[in-house]
Amino acid sequence: RRQSLMCIRACRCAFVFFAATSIRTVGGLHCWLHNACGSPVRAALNELPDEEWGACIDLNLTAVWKGSVIAFEYMKEGGSIIQISSPAGDRAVPGSGHYGAAKAAVNSLTKTLSLEFAPNVTVNGISPGYIPTEVMMKALQTDEEALAEMAQARIPLKRLGKPKDIGSAAIYLASEAGSWVTGQTLIVAGGI
Description:
Order of helices and strands: HEHEHEHHHE
Largest sheet: 4 strands, parallel
Shape: globular
Strand content: 5-15%
Distance between the termini: 37 Å
Number of helices: 6
Structural class: alpha/beta
Strand order of the largest sheet: 1-2-3-4
Mean pLDDT: 89
Helix content: 40-55%
Radius of gyration: 17 Å
């Protein structure tokens, strides 16, 4: 518990630093995107160590809440907050239940913050499909080639996602084009 509190305090300091730097260098904070997420641990929930549950919740949920609150404080002229979620937040994920629970909570947090921060700040999420990151491949105990074969078999658009797929969705949500969208989690997953 003490380690979690220290982590939250460190996150707050880092978030305030990034927000203040943004204001100093570009004149304001207009978009805040949470992208630190994941868990390399795969275990059934009844076998998951307490510290892994806590670490996953701290990274995937607590940091999102804390960062959102700090970003909102600095968005005096309005802006866009974007949370990176996961399809794991919408379904059962044996072996990654802790991660799925954290992402389900992020989806709920996104909806609540969108109402609390309205009308000047929009809050949305992006739920990416399979993108071959190091953490994903470690969690799935696979490599990029095997993941690409799985994509051919399971994903309607027959390919893995790319960082630019998620970047394009974020640009939409942060731009004037997405200014009337709030409280939504956009699924960017090739059709799954």
